[in-house]
Every structure is written in C-alpha cells, then in structure tokens.
Amino acid sequence: MWIMTVHSKNNITMFEFETEKEAKAAFEKTQGCKFLTQVIYFNDDYLVKSTIL
After folding, report:
1. Tens of pLDDT along 1-53?
2. Rounded CA gap, 38 and 23, in Å?
3. Distance of alpha carbon 3 from its chain centroid, rounded?
4. Are 4 and 38 spatial neighbours (Cβ–Cβ below 8 Å)?
5. Can you tell me whether residue 20 is helix, strand or coil?
6. β-bridge partners, 38
7. Distance (Å, rounded) from C-alpha 50 to C-alpha 27?
8. Among 29, 31, 27, which residue's Cα sits nearest to residue 8?
C-alpha cells in the first residue's frame, strides 16, 4: 500500500493507493508539499519465508 500525504496551509490530506505505479503517477501530478510513503505489513505473503517439505 502507498500513502501520499499533501500538506497545505490549513489542511493535511492523505490518499491511499494499491500500486506503486498508481501512487507515483498521482504524486507527479500533485502540487504542494507532499510525501509518498510505502506501508509494509509484516504479515504480507511476499514477506513470509516459504519452506518446501
């Protein structure tokens, strides 16, 4: 999951994206003070070490 946080004089707005491509495209189009953050959950399947028995 990707989160874009946009700060303005009176507001903080957060947008959530499923893919990195989608998040980076929105990030490029958005103006202002902004941050792009990847959220990693430690129980995600791709982070779990697999074992073959």
Report:
1. 899 999 988 999 999 999 999 999 999 999 889 999 998 877 666 666 655 65
2. 9
3. 3
4. no
5. helix
6. 2
7. 34
8. 31
Burial of 36 from C-beta contacts in 10 A (0-12 / 13-18 / 19+): middle
What does the DSSP 8-state code read for residue 3?
Answer: E
CB 26 within 8 A of CB 4: yes
Which residue type sits at 16? Answer: E
Distance of CA 48 to the CA centre of its chain: 20
Find out whether 24 and 38 touch, Cβ atoms under 8 Å: no
pTM of structure: 0.71
- Tokens coding 13: 């707005």
Domain boundaries, the chain: 2-47
